């Protein structure tokens, strides 16, 4: 089978996929190691026996609904290549706005905390709650290093938290892969000091997290229960735990249908674990962002606002814990 024949076969087999051309192209790149241009130029080139077997197997798996990212083990997010398995949610473009917001706010944090000699008074403490692949916290660290010129010594201390041991393993693997590379980190000393600043904690929300943070960044499960089950029917194999927002602290279905059961526990816990003046940025569904914003206000957060994503959908809710929590009392 040559590349042209493989393309034709793949597209026919995947005609029910929403993106057969793209799927076949990515799977062929995966099995051959060619890029998109090489695939066009070498279309008469025969696949080796091993490549053909791997391609037919990949097509068979994709036909079951398994996402291309789980077949190749890779997903690009915020320009970085994340390793993914069905233990973690595949990073979504909707989440990139959370990184932009965090970086904008961190730029202010750094400028407020800069001494006259350029040194930094306070290193930000950040928690990536519900970390999954680690795409949120790792992208923030990488962008600070590579785009904003923050030195390894001044990088935030990042704490990744996930309830799933398997997901946390993937967070770790991505941190080691992505923070071990890069111009600024290519010597082992720097790698060690960057990774030493990272904590990985397996925990049900903040149960095992005895720290306070300047920032909590989180993309928690927020999809209503019945919609989560419906989504999984297409064979995508993403973990229900990563999607379903209607589970209780025991992991059992709570009986609610607004996707907010976990968020209702999470928001007050975030308030407790933020320093005064600290910021919470939380991804939500376009259908429950406004209710989440009300919950932020009810909990005591100030400057609460909702940010839209690139598709103009309500996406991230942000709030600040006030500097003074004291109420004036009349004697
Ligand atoms: C929507 S995924 C987000 C993953 C990743 N941060 C992203 O943006 O792609 C939610 C993650 O929350 C984790 N999770 C679910 N319930 C949790 C809980 N009670 N405490 C901590 N993590 C939880 C899941 O294991 C999953 O990895």
Largest sheet: 7 strands, mixed
Average pLDDT, to the nearest integer? 92
Class derived from helix and strand content: alpha/beta
Which homologous superfamily in CATH is the superfamily of the largest domain?
Answer: Vaccinia Virus protein VP39
Task: Give me the CATH fold name of the largest domain.
Answer: Rossmann fold
Tally of individual helices:
13
Stretches where pLDDT falls below 50 for ≥5 residues? none
How many domains make up the coordinates? 2
Gross geometry: globular
The succession of helices and strands, N to C, reads: HHHHHEEHEHEHHEEHHHEHEE
Q: In the CATH hierarchy, what is the architecture of the largest domain at level 2?
A: 3-Layer(aba) Sandwich
Give the DSSP E fraction (strand runs of 2 or more residues).
Answer: 15-25%
Protein name: peptide chain release factor N(5)-glutamine methyltransferase
Keywords: Methyltransferase, S-adenosyl-L-methionine, Transferase
Pfam families: MTS, PrmC_N
Organism: Treponema berlinense
Textual characterization of the structure:
- This protein is an alpha/beta fold.
- The chain folds into two domains: 61 residues, Helicase, Ruva Protein, domain 3, CATH 1.10.8.10; 234 residues, Vaccinia Virus protein VP39 (Rossmann fold).
- Strand 3, helix 7 and strand 4 form a beta-alpha-beta unit.
- The site of S-adenosylmethionine (SAM) has 22 residues, from helix 7, strand 4 and helix 11.
